[in-house]
Amino acid sequence: MQHAFREHQERTEVRPRRSARLNPSPSSSLAFFYGTLMYPSVLRRVIRHDGSHLNACPAVLPAYIRHKVAHATFPAVIPFEQSRLLIPEEIPMTEQCVRGVLVRGLTEKDMKFIKSFEGNLYEYVVADVQPLKQFASLDSNNAVQMDVLASDTENNLQSHSPEYLRANVYVWRLPLSDLLPEIWTFEEFERDALADWM
């Protein structure tokens, strides 16, 4: 875990910080995570408590693509139209959205810790996120995460009513040249890098 945190710190010290667009409305307590913070043990480590007040559910962020970051194991999302500049070939429909976890109940202090963890590689934007199931306590988030990993995104989207929640999302803010023209996947991350974060 310390190795992964150092990797984040080194990357965030490279360029000067730009102020993030943190939404001050009630949705600031609602955030969508699509990479390392999907894992309860990582999130608890970052916010420095057990997260007993948090709820989570599997969710989908439409019209964004999750890319690999050059020389890193964590991902980044960018809007679909920007992704087309990196991946000129046709992107499968199931990859034209991002699977992840929607977390509710984050406090201002939690968000400050998360912002510090993410550094200046990303900025917060407010986006429409579609929950796929009911919220459950973070204690049961291992099951939530498994739902995300095993989810058939296309069928899930078709079988659920188009209910969206406005949530904060970390979106890549640095040049696209720092991203790889490859889609980041859970399976590859868990196989090759997850142990460094646990």
From TrEMBL:
Domain of life from the UniProt record: Eukaryota
InterPro entries in the record: AIG2-like, AIG2-like_dom, GGCT-like, GGCT-like_sf
An annotated Gene Ontology molecular function: transferase activity
CDD domains assigned: GGCT_like
Domain Gamma-glutamylcyclotransferase AIG2-like: 32-130
Record keyword Transferase present: yes
Pfam families, alphabetized: GGACT (PF06094)
Positions of the UniProt region annotated as Disordered: 1-25
Similarity annotation: Belongs to the gamma-glutamylcyclotransferase family.
Name this protein carries in UniProt: Putative gamma-glutamylcyclotransferase
Organism: Rickenella mellea
